[in-house]
């Protein structure tokens, strides 16, 4: 049932997204998890405590952050399994809230639209909604690169990873992953406040994203074979060569694959909160500057890769259903 829930959740979210009226009415699972993380941060992360104590409390906080949504998701999964087949539909709708296929494409496309209709000023405003770097330091090429990098990275941790862990552990696995990823984004920073307290959250997020990041890179490479103008061979070679250059053990895989497929150089030095992060470049773009047309090409690659992801889960779901029916039939024959 877990694989089938993951597949149906992908199909539901790609079609419907998460409606604004629903968000305005009840919020979103990420906002609920965020409130829990903020509560634990206020209660356990004290500046007067030693780093050792803050690291231990960070581990304790992470366990709570994982267990609360994970156990709620597991309970719902078991309950809905007992209501099969109606419960499967409900589970797919709930699982779709853990994904962001539709909204990711919309937000990135807004950056391309802004650059083309309003120039750099509107482009900076649009990209500031999806990246954490300082928008006022970005030129047009920097805005375009930021949008493409965000698209590649969020395809991994906002779509492939939650689908992967939902397929492994059902609603409980998907919810626990989403909690881990949200914790990393909120407290997994290398700042004086979170260096110790958020260490466990950052390390755990790196661990659970390992399989999805590699799968995402491979999906982008395969998509490049199917999107006119993309470079599948370069996507593969650049991913293998440059992924390890990224400061994240995971983000480099989809970003490097995207850089190779587009024939661009991505990453490089960036400014966050006034501080420059001197990252290496990935890709072989040379002096060619990224443009809004590159954002649109990246979106074509993303959408094709997302179709491949849906197809992968559809095939695995069909195999699992066939094996289940085969085993059930053999059991019935034995009786």
From TrEMBL:
Transmembrane segments: 61-94, 212-231, 307-327
Subcellular location: Cell membrane
Any coiled-coil regions, as ranges: none
Keyword Ubl conjugation attributed: no
Membrane topology: Multi-pass membrane protein
Entry-linked PANTHER family: COBALAMIN BIOSYNTHESIS PROTEIN CBIB
Family per record: Belongs to the CobD/CbiB family.
Function: Converts cobyric acid to cobinamide by the addition of aminopropanol on the F carboxylic group.
Protein name listed in UniProt: Cobalamin biosynthesis protein CobD
């Amino acid at each position: 049932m877990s694989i089938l829930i993951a597949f149906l959740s992908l199909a539901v979210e790609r079609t419907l997204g998460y409606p604004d009226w629903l968000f305005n009415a009840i919020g979103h699972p990420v906002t609920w998890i965020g409130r829990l993380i903020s509560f634990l941060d206020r209660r356990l992360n004290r500046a007067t405590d030693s780093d050792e104590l803050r690291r231990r409390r960070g581990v304790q906080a992470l366990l709570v952050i994982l267990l609360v949504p994970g156990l709620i998701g597991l309970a719902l999964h078991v309950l809905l399994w007992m209501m099969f087949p109606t419960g499967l539909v409900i589970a797919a709708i709930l699982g779709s809230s853990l994904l962001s296929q539709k909204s990711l494409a919309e937000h990135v496309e807004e950056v391309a639209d802004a650059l083309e209709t309003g120039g750099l000023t509107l482009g900076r405003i649009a990209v500031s909604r999806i990246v954490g770097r300082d928008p006022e330091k970005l030129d047009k090429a920097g805005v375009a690169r930021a949008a493409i990098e965000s698209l590649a990275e969020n395809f991994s941790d906002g779509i492939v990873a939650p689908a992967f862990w939902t397929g492994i552990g059902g609603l409980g696995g998907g919810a626990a992953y989403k909690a881990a990823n949200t914790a990393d984004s909120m407290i997994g920073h290398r700042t004086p406040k979170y260096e110790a307290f958020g260490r466990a959250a950052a390390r755990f997020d790196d661990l659970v994203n390992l399989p999805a990041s590699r799968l995402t890179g491979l999906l982008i490479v395969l998509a490049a074979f199917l999107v006119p103008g993309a470079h599948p061979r370069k996507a593969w070679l650049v991913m293998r060569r440059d992924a390890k250059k990224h400061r994240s053990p995971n983000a480099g895989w989809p970003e490097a694959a995207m850089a190779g497929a587009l024939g661009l150089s991505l990453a490089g030095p960036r400014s966050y909160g006034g501080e420059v992060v001197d990252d290496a470049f990935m890709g072989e773009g040379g002096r060619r500057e990224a443009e809004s047309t590159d954002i649109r090409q990246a979106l074509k690659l993303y959408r094709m890769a997302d179709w491949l992801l849906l197809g992968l889960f559809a095939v695995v779901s069909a195999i699992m259903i066939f094996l289940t029916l085969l085993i059930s039939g053999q059991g019935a024959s034995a009786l």
